[in-house]
Amino acid sequence: MLVLSYQHASIRGMKNTDHYKTALLAEKQTLEEELGGIALFNTETNLWEATPDQELMGETDDNDAADRFEDFEGRSGMVTTLQTRLIDVDAALAKIEAGTYGICEISGEPIEEARLNANPAARTNKAHMNDNEM
User: Fold this and answer.
1) What is the DSSP letter of 130?
2) How confident is the model over 31-72, as pLDDT tens digits?
3) Burial of 71 (0-12, 13-18, 19+ CB in 10 A)
4) Alpha-carbon distance 82 to 78, whole Å?
């Protein structure tokens, strides 16, 4: 209960979140545009799925098929990276709406303003930024 009251007190003390919301919305749009160029959104799974480059499609020899496979693997990796970032951005936007933005998910302490300025979707404060327990 002590952490909960600390969280609410820190939210009230936080500067206006409009700046962060604007930055997050702009990043969300960029991520969705980038994903749209290399993937399709699957509404059944709510996940982005890599698509093959259409320029590499068609009848090919073994070398071309290997190139297509390599390209698709690269696109799949990019989709994973972009989708992970998009999930973090969406989570940060939801926290702004819920009034819990800027609170470390591990310690419950405020996330430093400098960290939020550098990464508005940060989920942890600097002390926990390398923890993989989330």
Assistant:
1) T
2) 999 999 889 899 999 989 888 765 555 556 666 666 666 777
3) middle
4) 6
What is the number of other CB atoms lying within 10 angstroms of the CB of residue 28?
17
Q: How many residues comprise the chain?
A: 134
pLDDT at 52: 78
Q: Are strands 39-42 and 47-50 parallel, antiparallel or unpaired?
A: antiparallel
Q: Find tokens 């990019």 and name the residue.
A: 78
Residue with tokens 């939801």: 94
Helices 62-98, 18-38: axis angle to 10 degrees equals 160
In three-state form (DSSP H/G/I as H, E/B as E, the rest C), the secondary structure along 66-125 is: HHHHHHHHHHHHHHHHHHHHHHHHHHHHHHHHHCCCCECCCCCCECCHHHHHHCCCCCCC
Amino acid, single-letter form, for residue 9: A
Pair of tokens at residue 101: 């933005």
- Residue 108: which region, alpha, beta or left (left: phi > 0; alpha: psi -120 to 50)? left
